[in-house]
Amino acid sequence: MSTLLSNKTRICVIVILLFHLVGLIGFIIPSLIVLFMALVHWHLLLMLGVIIYSHDERDNRFFLFALIIATAGFIAECVGVHTGWLFGNYNYGGTLGSKLFEVPLMIGVNWFLLIYATGVTLKRSRIGNKYLRVIIGAVILTLLDVLIEPIAIRFDYWHWTGGIIPIKNYLCWFLVSAVLLFIFERFDFKRQSIVAAVLFVTQFVFFAVLNFVY
After folding, report:
1. What's the confidence (pLDDT) of residue 91?
2. Which residue ranges in the chain fall short of pLDDT 70?
3. Pairing state of beta strands 90-92 and 158-160?
4. Which of 9, 35, 84, 200 could form an SS bridge with 121, CB 3.0 to 4.6 Å?
5. With 0-12 CB in 10 A as exposed, 13-18 as middle and 19+ as buried, what is 139?
6. What is the C-alpha separation between 188 and 152, in angstroms, rounded?
7. What do you get for the CA distance between the two ends of the chain, in Å?
């Protein structure tokens, strides 16, 4: 069984690293950018499949958690887009795919991936206090958003009214992330493999490199 799990983990890690590397190349080479922008939502679905496959004990609790996080994230974005109460005044472009209520369906998947990857990574750390993990996780996700924003704007993920990213966006990212990470902690999943942690680190590297290039 341990060998099987090790093989599963290895496959998932290779897929995460390989597809992020390919995506990075695609976004750097000008002639490939349009093609790779069209593949973004498929990439998110692939990462969703990898995370689901890697999770131990894929029972009803896990899928309930995924549904709650994806739905909550999607609703938060709907509130943001239509009222500006959360995040600020912004609208989504076409890169993230099909929309419902002017919000890409993939945004719920993205929130799930971010929260799960962060939650699992911090639970694998030496931080024993779950409330401290929530706060640290929310800070880290806010820092990740700092890296994501310029790239998201450049590649038509979303756009801010007036072209200015408001401080409110980062404050709300912290608050929404903290709430969703608290929900993760409440589900109290057992210690998972390194797959989600690899996705967590890879996301930082991916957007950091793109920020350096552009």
Report:
1. 97
2. 1-5
3. antiparallel
4. 200
5. middle
6. 32
7. 45
- DSSP 8-state code for residue 163: G
List 90's β-bridge partners, or say none: 160
3-state secondary structure of 193: coil
**Domain ranges, residue 51:** 2-213
The DSSP bridge pattern shows strands 99-100 and 103-104 to be antiparallel
Phi, psi (degrees; rounded to nearest 5) at 158: -155, 165
- Residue among 115, 143, 114, 121 nearest 211 (CA): 143
Q: How many of the other CB atoms lie within 10 Å of CB of 85?
A: 11
Residue whose token pair is 């799990």: 5
pLDDT computed for residue 5 by the predictor: 59
Q: Is the pTM of this model over 0.90?
A: yes
Helix runs in 124-190, H state only = 130-154, 167-187
Place of tokens 């993939």: 106
> How many C-beta neighbours within 10 Å does residue 159 have?
14
Torsion from C-alpha of 41, 78, 109, 27, nearest 10 degrees: 30
pLDDT for 58 equals 86
- Give CA–CA dist 23/33, Å, rounded: 9
Looking at residue 1, its pLDDT comes to 43
Q: What is the DSSP letter of 87?
A: S
Q: Name the token pair of 176.
A: 């929404």
Structure tokens at 13: 């890690």
Give the total number of structural domains in the chain: 1
Q: Which helix (H) or strand (E) covers residue 103, if one does?
A: strand 103-104
